[in-house]
Amino acid sequence: MNKTDFLASPSVTDFMAWLNRNVGTLKVNLRIPRSRYVPAAVRSRLIGLPAVARSYIWRAQGMTTGNWAETCATLAQLSADLCLAVNTGNQDDAFAACKEILRWGGNRNPTVGALPFLTSKCVAQSLCNYLQSCKAAFVLNEADTTLLMPPVENMNAMLTKVHALNADDGLPIYDSRVAAAIGSLVEGWRVSACITDPVPAELAFPSTAINRTVWRLFPDAQSPGHITYTGPDDILNWAVAKVRLGWLLEALANRSGTALKGLGATVPQRMRALEAALFMIGYDVRCLAENFTGASAHGAAPAGLPRWPRRRTQAAMVPPAGASRRRSVMPLSGRGTLISYRGDLDSGFEVRWGNLSFPLQAGVIEEIETYFAGCRDVRLEARRDGAPRAGSFGRWLLDAGWPSPQYGSAVAAILREEGLLEARRHGGALMLSFKDPQVERPR
């Protein structure tokens, strides 16, 4: 499929018309908690994607505020450094530029994923050639989704950033938040138009993280697919989704005119701003709920795909990179079914608890550490049928998209076993005291 065929698809035409009508009027109720990259919690009721883009915040290491203006300047410099190095064939400078992009993107574990892959290319003196070949394949005006592999050999949440910043035409970053947001907008259009047919392949944007999916907004939505990082087609599906999203954002940036005024003088700049809006929405796609009050999606997700809150089969589990021997721990209550898990703090854990199997991802662990850093006597409140109060661990899990506070019993038990928190009983309540990851995290 090329851009002409994609944009000529009736489904794409209809969705683009709907999105163009709503780009400036969508109601977005952002509720983003404080984290390492969000220095102050975001609590904003906004109208339209341009307003959401202007609310963007991602304070990576070395940044002052992480707001949209500073981010634009940072990305422009990162892109310029990488493109210059690649175009001149300077392997060392290209590798250094890639590492800076990964640092901005929040790469957590340098021993797995993007960095080892890029390192191997640099050692072989093929990094510049590889990035040039991928850049040519990703050019939106010429891209063909049947011709992306080869040259693309790998794709993940960090490599998508490298390829986006090596592009000249606004090729988007396709990460878990962006994927959840565009998937939710597609389902919102389907619900609004009362479409019951399966999600068309052109508009099926797969999720890349189990806690960020269209199902948080539309629990009965048909599946747009899920990228597990280990499936035989995951690299190609990720690359194809990245290109298809680029075609959509380019068309929207060209069509929306005054609705996107102030987001950039060029189409690539406006595309990057639209991507930023999707990123913010993707923290929790329920921020779009007000636009679809009373509506419901059609169909159900195939049973083999990861989904909250449906129990997941072991076949759907993805052992994290670096998974180690399996360990067992009791729930914090001291009774009930043993919790079995394997993995490590930097790669995440695969957890089994009775009939439940779920991932405790490294990014989720980092969010917990950042949010509760140094907090003492936080109530657990992990009853399945309970309504956890504000400030409790169970409430945080619900707000972060977990289906039930009950998961807190397993998550907290694992984090205690790994030395990230302490637990004690006070009266009838279990209280958690979290260590400060900056000074106390075990290594």
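(the above was protein one; protein two follows)
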Amino acid sequence: MVRRERKRKSFLVVVVFLLVIGFTGVFFGMQYLKKTGLFKQVGTITYDDSLTESEKDFLKKYFTEDFEVSNNLTISAFETTDISSLESNELVYEVNVPIADFYDIRSDISDLSEEEYKFVPLDQLNHSMKLLSINGDYYLKDFTKGARFRVMKFDSDGFDSEIKPIIYKEFADLSPSKDTVLTFAQTGVTAFSREMNNKLAQVGGDATFFVENIREYLSSFDLTHTSNESSFSDSANNNNICSDKRFVDALLAIGLDIVELTGNHNLDCGADDAIDTIDVYNSNNIKIVGGGKNATEANKPLNLNEKGNNITMLAYNQSTGGATYDDTPGANQYYEDDAATNIAAAKERGDLVIVDIQYYECSAYASASEDDTCDYANSSAGDQVSFFRHLIDLGADVVVGTSAHQPQTFETYGNGVIYYGLGNLFFDQVWWPGTTRSLVLEHYIYKNRILQTRITPTVYDNNMQTRLMDEEDAASFLNRLTRVHP
């Protein structure tokens, strides 16, 4: 019995020993295969000569002397004008964009000599510069072309597991993208009224007839704005500035997001129709600024929070009538203290501030031929230049005149930019060339500041159908406006 017990114990000892040896072998075998533990291999990090010293310093903040990689890593850099097909281990480090003078009407570097444009880092781009395209590619359209891109390449078998988790976010945060840049189209006067009511009947009641040549363009923006000074009414005819109720389809077709009600004709159809029109906007999720059912409502700033951008829009009727002073509907009357307070509060929050003004109109409608009277910033009654500049002095980033029925010039001033008048986007006056035109402001907004505003002229024909102006005509017209800036 004793001998048998000893044999059993000896057998168990052998089994335990073999198990320990087996587990130990498996344990160290796995370390060997995975190159961990005792068998861990440390890779090398090589900085290619294509990297600048500043780029190496940037990388060494993350790949410190204590940082170890198990796979060899080689980092290099190259430049390209197209990043649409980068590999996963190729990351954009820097973007340099081509710019010219703000007042230069040319749009592509191919139109300028090398002395007339330069490349600047993207973070230096601002509203006072003119962003150019490269061979027709405009950087802010899709962010993969239209610039010189500095790209770093990380060659390592362990890129996804070792390198990407450490470095990727830093590179992803370097540049704006479609997810973080807000596109915002500001347009001029809209009034589907008078002869447009007649034309609507002639085309079978389809209000999208008037926008069919521009709907795709306007609806492509994240936000689209217009200053509509005509209320919807059953009494709309060819003699009044009232809109057939079917014209709401035209506004929806262009993707309207924001309607400005600073116009002096919104009460032409009566208070009840003005109130009902506001209800139509609300029911279609169209935001309202510069007007309302009463003075308190009309005075509310419009706060926009889109794609990480915070924008305050203020809109005032400075002089043309139609304002509300109490519990009646109408436009938001301009008061100096109110504007100063609202602008200061918005700037304190760090918002981008856009102020729209329904100002005095330029009266140069008597000629069926070209008349450049209204091109000038001082062509309106009153001192428009000083008034608009004063709003920039108060802290506004952008000031826009939305009452002008003919486009006016524009300028950079102080820390902002002024567009004195945008003209008519949708209107019925086809007999005066000046009233058939408008300017669309294409704002590109990133981190609460305007990277760029591109100006696109429009024109409508004898059918009152609005379209983008032909390229040659647009260049000629913009040149006409820039020549007379203050």
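Reviewer note on protein two: The first strand starts at residue 45 and ends at 47.
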